[in-house]
Design brief:
With 192 residues, the chain is an all-alpha fold. It has 8 helices and 2 strands. Among the domains are: 75 residues, no CATH class; 59 residues. 64% of the residues lie in helices and 2% in strands.
Length: 192
């Protein structure tokens, strides 16, 4: 069957079938689509599995009443060569590979162990939230910026009296060193 017929079979557009082809979900025998193999891949890769290819039973609209379990189950369509047990597995797994009980328990215990280790590391200070570090660094940079920008206003009269460039350089060196030492003392007194 060609791609247009395959699109009609599944009730989708030709563009959708082209996307399936690009993703490698279709199997071809020459120029024709291998329906069984393609349906198997669609069942494997699509979120909702392969769509039902048989027309659904049309019933009169019952309004907005919620469907009962039996009504919802009556809408399940079996695929070609699919048993009821296979259909139930397909519906329950949601196309997710299920683990056996021991594997699932092992997976859960590993997850809980890693989570507990992370919480311990966070509580002991070995791990720190990146947002907190960024906030602390930003606060410190703001202090440095404010202190350095205040130097010209504070020191302008003193710098104005300088007679030589060497004298000006010495005063600036002294003032900047003093400001940086002040900021270092402030930072050393605030351990977190």
């Amino acid at each position: 069957m060609n791609q247009s017929e395959f699109a009609t079979l599944h009730g989708v557009s030709r563009k959708t079938v082209t996307k399936w082809k690009e993703r490698g979900w279709l199997v071809f025998a020459g120029d024709e689509v291998d329906v069984d193999a393609s349906n198997a891949l669609l069942k494997k890769y699509r979120r909702d599995g392969a769509p039902a290819v048989t027309p659904p039973v049309t019933q009169a609209s019952a309004g907005n009443k919620p469907k009962t379990v039996t009504q919802a189950a009556s809408e399940v369509t079996l695929g070609e060569r699919e048993s009821a047990a296979d259909a139930a597995d397909r519906i329950l797994s949601g196309n997710v590979q299920l683990l056996d009980f021991d594997e699932a328990r092992c997976f859960k215990e590993n997850y809980l162990g890693l989570k507990a280790q992370l919480e311990y590391d966070r509580d002991s200070g070995l791990v720190i939230d990146v947002a907190e570090v960024a906030k602390a660094v930003g606060t410190e940079y703001a202090k440095v910026r404010t202190r350095l920008l205040s130097i010209p206003a504070e020191q302008a009269p003193r710098l104005h009296r300088c007679k030589t460039p060497a004298e000006l350089q010495d005063i600036l060196q002294e003032v900047i060193t003093e400001a940086l030492e002040e900021l270092t003392r402030d930072g050393a007194g605030n351990p977190k």
